[in-house]
Amino acid sequence: MSVHADCVASAEDRRRQLEFSQQIRSFTSSHWSNGVRSVGTDQKYALRKVSAAEVETLETFCGCSCKDWSNCWLLLSPANQASVDQSQTLKSLVSKTHLDGTNVLIIEANPPAAKDDTAISSLEPWTKCPMGIHSNLLISNSIVATNSWVTGNTAICDTHIHPQAVIMGCGAITANPKLSSQLALSVGPESGGARNLIVQPESDMIQVCQQLTKRNLSSNNINNTLPETIPINVISRHCIVRDTPTIQGIYMAPSSSIHSATNVKDVVMLPTSTIQHSSTVHNARLQWKASISSHSDVSDTLLMEEAHIGPNSLVASSILGPDVHVSAGECHCSILGPNTNAHHQSLIISVLWPLGRGNVGYGANIGSNHTGRIPDQEVASGEGVFWGLSTVIKYPVDLSMAPYSIVAAGTTLPPQRVCMPFSLIVTGNDNVHNSIIPGWVLSSSPYTIARSEKKYATRRKAIRHKHYTGWKIIRPETVNMCHWARKQLLEAAAGPTTFVTDRAIPGIGNNILSEKGRQTGIKVYTECIQRFALEGILFWMMQQDGGTITEQELKHEFSSVAAGHTVESVDALYKQVTWPLLPWETKTPSELWSYQKSLLLDEFPPMDSDNIFAWIARLLTKMADLEKVHAASILKSKKRDDQRGAKTVPGYAGCHTAAEDDPVIKEANQRANEIQVQVERIMGSFKKHQRSKL
């Protein structure tokens, strides 16, 4: 899948800006004789040295100084080229600034801002200050637009400041000639090896996962992209840089901002990204609307669109996917996929979480990666995993094949691999092993899944990543995992009341499983598989002209089933210890229906007495019944909170939304009702069709 068009445009804009800066710098260093040179891709700008009259104006009326005025240049836009002498313009736009080295002042007509121009309005109140270059102790080897606001800075060196940018009250702004737009970082083990990745400012999780999983690498993979050096600072139109003591090596795309940071070094910022409030940032790449704030310390990190760090966070050698939030904690050598949240004081070290969508509870220690020798261990976390309050995770751990599982509060999880999706792991009673309840989230907390489905759909603010982040929770990959887990539970040896570790049942990890838990897992996994398969036939029947479909057509459709579902592939993943399939590697709609058909024939084999219409009618009735049960179980799981709260907290019912009024539950009930209507409509068309045959 290609990178979104906006990402390509962003990289192209950066290339054009750097080429423009380099062209100006090469002309000013070529020592050509006095005259005018055309500059820019369309050659519309005119570059010339300042005249004697303009030098006198700058010295006498503007209070400026320069060691060598012959190295001072003017870059004139077409609207300003008619006037030979720019002294009057310089009088109002430049004052009390010392120039050193080779500098270019851009004189460009300032277009009037529309009242609804959000880019200009975001610069307020700074735009109320006098426009121009005023009261700077030093500007050296820089290209500065005079229709910007550059005021009260200590030193600006090797920097291209575009029109309508704000740079105020800063200390030293210097360049790093070796700054690259690429970012090389290591995730996984902190020492004793590493997973080395190379990312661009516009990279997405697909490209990151291609490197992580070593799958689907193509000739135009990001590894083969040549480094793009950024030898001069670029502060683009509508940017704000203020009250920051030290900046070294910066590329700022339009409308990005740095507010009162402590130290910013080797950073590339895409539009509307922000660094602020006493944060220290070194070697970071920020995408659209990404932010670092409030005394945070960030290094060697890529923040994708709408990712946020702060307050009081420490993040190093990590990739934060779209819509990820890390606050008041630490994150090192990790990949956090979309919609992952660590809102509280927690520790995340060497966590590989490419599909994200999870939560890290307060005080959770997902970082016991030190074996007493070197910190060389890591954890593979599955989609939607919830690490509870004050959990302690001892590496290595793999929950990549246990999506949407919960590690309960206060649990210490020793090294293990768990492959039972939607499970709950809690502290055990034998002081040796924890207990696992396979499928507990599906059976006892289906509200969690229903709410998460709705939450991820509404909280996806990263528009440039939406083409791949909208996957469903219940999909072929997770259904395959449920199918594999059910198979292991069904094949367990009969007799014992307790199954101890994955020696007894593959996939339960270093935990104990009760016979009751085994039966619960079998039941809820079966319901999950069947609901998914039945959704397929309902959707397929809704796409057909139900009143005219013939028995022959139906028989043909269900005789053309592909090789079947791929529980064997899950078994291979379990044995080989590799990454499961990712959502963007999933099936096409036609492949999906073929997969669901194979499940249907496995779960609901036709009876000898069935004709094709009777068999489908039985399936549709089962679908409607399961959906009603599912909606009721969602209500029941949420209602437990209401009942427990009302018995515990005074006035609880009066200030909490009742389960019956919860929008998630209303939506589940509405879906069950709509399915019932559709089933009745299809079955009515069956009866009509059968009557017409008579």
Give the topology.
Layout: H1 5-28, E1 37-39, E2 45-49, H2 52-61, E3 65-66, E4 72-76, H3 87-93, E5 94-95, E6 98-100, E7 103-107, H4 118-121, E8 132-134, E9 139-140, E10 143-145, E11 149-151, E12 155-157, E13 159-161, E14 166-168, E15 172-174, E16 183-187, E17 195-199, H5 205-213, E18 233-235, E19 240-242, E20 246-252, E21 257-259, E22 263-269, E23 274-276, E24 280-286, E25 291-292, E26 297-303, E27 308-309, E28 314-320, E29 325-326, E30 330-332, E31 335-336, E32 341-342, E33 347-349, E34 351-353, E35 359-360, E36 365-368, E37 379-380, E38 386-387, E39 392-394, E40 397-398, E41 406-407, E42 412-413, E43 416-417, E44 424-426, E45 434-437, H6 440-444, H7 446-458, H8 466-469, H9 476-490, E46 498-500, H10 501-504, E47 511-514, H11 515-543, H12 551-559, H13 567-576, H14 589-603, H15 612-648, H16 663-693
Parallel strand pairs: 3-6, 4-7, 5-8, 6-9, 7-10, 8-11, 9-12, 10-13, 11-14, 12-15, 13-18, 14-19, 15-20, 18-20, 19-21, 20-22, 21-23, 22-24, 23-25, 24-26, 25-27, 26-28, 27-29, 28-30, 28-31, 29-32, 30-33, 31-34, 33-36, 34-37, 35-38, 36-39, 37-40, 38-41, 39-42, 40-43, 41-44, 45-47
Antiparallel strand pairs: 1-2, 2-4, 16-17, 44-45, 46-47
